[in-house]
Amino acid sequence: MNRLLLALAAPLTLILVASCAGPGVAPRSGVAERQQAVIRYQGQVGQVTFPELAADLGYLDGVRLHWIGNFTSGPQDIQAAVTGDTDVGGAFNGSILRLAAAGAPITAVIGYYGIDEKTLTGYFVRDGSPIRTARDLIGKTVGVNTLGAHYEDVLRIYLAKNGLTEQEINSVQLVVVPPISAEQALRSGQLDVAVLQGIYRDKALARGAVHPVFTDYDLLGTFTAGSYVLRNDFIAANPDTVRRFVAGTARAITWAQQHPRDEVVARMKQIVRQRGRAENTDALDYWHSTGVALPGGVIARTEFGTWLDRLRADGRITGSSVDLNTLYTNRFNPYAAPTQP
Question: For position 22, what pLDDT does the model report?
Fold first, then answer.
């Protein structure tokens, strides 16, 4: 695509927001005594992620969260974990694949966001637009929040599934637009298509005169789209901490999957207010569901395989530079079946 093709520098949602910690617990013994009990992470203004929810629910079993600031993008967030600025980061699974292909020593340990019939992303056009099919997108501009991440890879799969050649796919021009500006850029004609999700999608639909050509849910159904990753050396040095962190986060995801939406939103608003950062909680009113496909954020192989196939097809990942057998693990997740890697 005629666009600044980044391998990793761009956002996608979400990494551990911070309500930090509960009180410490006595060390367990042996190796556990020497393990790091604090996990450093970046957050997101006005949002609550599952590790923070887990801390608030008392599920982290003595592991404490330490917020060091807010992330600028999903790829940046996982890069910060690689460089040691944080201990954990979260991003779209395709972004994780790109980073791993570049040699980053990371492992995905739990899924944390995804797509379902309530939580989805639309590729919007103005009513009356001549764009109705994938072929109509050839040579058009599409506004995305970042390059090299969820919105780009979903679009490329959509175009490929509808018969476009690689040359035709590459003619679609991706334009980076902040999510808050995307709807206006679409309505003013600066963009042919704008990718809208969450609060931005719902507000655009309420104002009318726009509609999606397709959504990621239309294309791929329910799937977990992003995972939290840790450095391999951190996992090796702190396996008990990792187990408790993943297990607690998994319990929080399951809690949100099983409780009424209004109860989940109310709890998240309470967490935001209690952390005292003068944040607006309006965006939480547009939280619909976890989007996470499997109980407790268990990772399915296809949730990486889908993106790996596409990245190999267009040459952005080559050969055996990524091994799914080592890229992710469910071994710390109590909701995983014994046969799941």
Answer: 33
